[in-house]
Amino acid sequence: MAQHESVARPYARAAFEIGREENALPAWSALLADAATAVVAPEIKAGLNQPGAKGDRIARMLADICVRDSAAIALAQNGYGLNFLLLLAENRRLEALPEIAAEFEQLRAEVENTLDVTLSAAAPVSEEQRARIVAALKQRFGRDVRLNFVLDESLIGGARLQADDHVIDGSVSTRLAKLASALVH
Fold first, then answer.
1. What ranges do the domains of the chain cover?
2. How far apart are CA 38 and CA 42, in angstroms?
3. Are 28 and 15 in contact (CB under 8 A)?
4. Which residue, 49, 85, 51, 53, is CA-closest to 66?
5. pTM for the whole thing?
6. Cα angle for residues 6, 10, 16 (degrees, 5° grid)
7. pLDDT tens profile 34-67
8. Which residues pair with 149 in a beta bridge?
9. At 28, which helix (H) or strand (E)?
10. Which CATH number does 2-110 carry?
């Protein structure tokens, strides 16, 4: 994975620059997210590692899969997106797509002054609670906040917020783990 991270930066920057010039950052986000999800699927991953695998066929198959919205469809099937996937295939870099997508999203968030935050909770969180969390995070970080909610029953109770490198963990499972560690040591 670490090797993919260093490979991902120049590809993500190239996709970002093209997306910005074409005013198509959301379409690029959709394309890269869909392709990154597809490339880690076991059947596609196995195809990438087969001797004599045709990278261009896999890239075209990925382009066909990336059909979340109309802009992403056009980008994937006959635009810069298809060429981007073909270039990745030619350079045997399709496996780096998850890291490329993540790096692209960081670049996009910087330019759009947004912050992607993942709220993981053991129970559903009301819209009112989400709005208060978004308001507090917006005030703290001075950026617009896109909140993604994940129901994670393994937390037992409480919640966990992750924004870039910042983590606020108020989950019961973490508290229990700390208690167990304190008892052992």
1. 2-110, 114-184
2. 9
3. yes
4. 85
5. 0.71
6. 130
7. 889 988 988 888 777 677 667 778 888 887 777 6
8. 119
9. helix 25-39
10. 1.10.520.20
